[in-house]
Amino acid sequence: xxxxxxxxxxxxxxxxxxxxxxxxxxxxxxxxxxxxxxxxxxxxxxxxxxxxxxxxxxxxxxxxxxxxxxxxxxxxxxxxxxxxxxxxxxxxxxxxxxxxxxxxxxxxxxxxxxxxxxxxxxxxxxxxxxxxxxxxxxxxxxxxxxxxxxxxxxxxxxxxxxxxxxxxxxxxxxxxxxxxxxxxxxxxxxxxxxxxxxxxxxxxxxxxxxxxxxxxxxxxxxxxxxxxxxxxxxxxxxxxxxxxxxxxxxxxxxxxxxxxxxxxxxxxxxxxxxxxxxxxxxxxxxxxxxxxxxxxxxxxxxxxxxxxxxxxxxxxxxxxxxxxxxxxxxxxxxxxxxxxxxxxxxxxxxxxxxxxxxxxxxxxxxxxxxxxxxxxxxxxxxxxxxxxxxxxxxxxxxxxxxxxxxxxx
Length: 409
Hints:
Layout: H1 9-19, H2 24-31, H3 35-42, H4 50-60, H5 64-68, H6 77-83, H7 86-94, H8 109-124, H9 128-148, H10 151-175, H11 178-195, H12 198-214, H13 218-236, H14 243-261, H15 265-279, E1 288-290, E2 293-295, H16 297-310, H17 314-323, H18 332-348, H19 352-365, H20 367-371, H21 374-385, H22 392-401
Antiparallel strand pairs: 1-2
């Protein structure tokens, strides 16, 4: 079933539910989900929340990616190009600890660092094809550096390698290669441990927590994040600034996400308040990016909106989304993600025009992120299914994203 663009999330849930021998009511009882929500999701009338998807997947003993249909391979050459580097990245991650003499002699660390900066720009702009084309060579060279060098030069190479493993993790996750993402998460832990840099270790722990989030093990994920926060604060002191604030704040925002998906309103509010406290320390109130993570007042507001959707307060999320204006300085990957979340909120409150406008903006801001995002694809389907005849704008968006509308299936 994976990768079939003609199936909806709801139809996949229905198929796996039947294979498991559940009626809709039995599935609702076992998963502790609303029967009405299950019916509407299966019929394509409602967008599932991330919490709904995680719960459904866990109950049906499948992965979330099997329910969303990822990876979306597509039928165009551009789709083939974006997926092409995955095999090479997988091979490099597999061979990370083989003898150094088996590897080519790398360029200087300075030369490699310049390319890492370019790859970082591609990741922030959600330019998956360009990023993927750079990553295999960078991972190979930096792994060789870690094996060939020592002292300060080795630690610098390890920090750069950790950065590249994080970018590879992002690419694998966004494209739906959950098995590879898990391997890259471990390689990120390994590289950051060699870097002797508490902020690099903080990034690796922040990333590791996502694995527990995907597994719907929110309790462990939240405990890991709290431990990571305490360890990082111990390393940087109780009066952090700059990059340390970004890392600490990002940990708080990930706690907001996990607590909201656990449907814990009190914990969500607590972590949000802690994030806002840290955001007040960001100079000039302008979000900063350090170690690939974005933190400040705006990204805190973005996480608040996403949390309200998971807490089933779409009216609050929609109202706040209308009031929030994202600065052009915010990374495209963050703006695109927010616009997709805003569309989810607008669909939930019945504002079809605002939802369509948000998805169109997401396409403009971060086209590859939007094209391969499961919630964006499903949002287009829901918009099309809410009306007997989908409008031309919806049909055009569906054709571009590779999601068939009811009139084309």
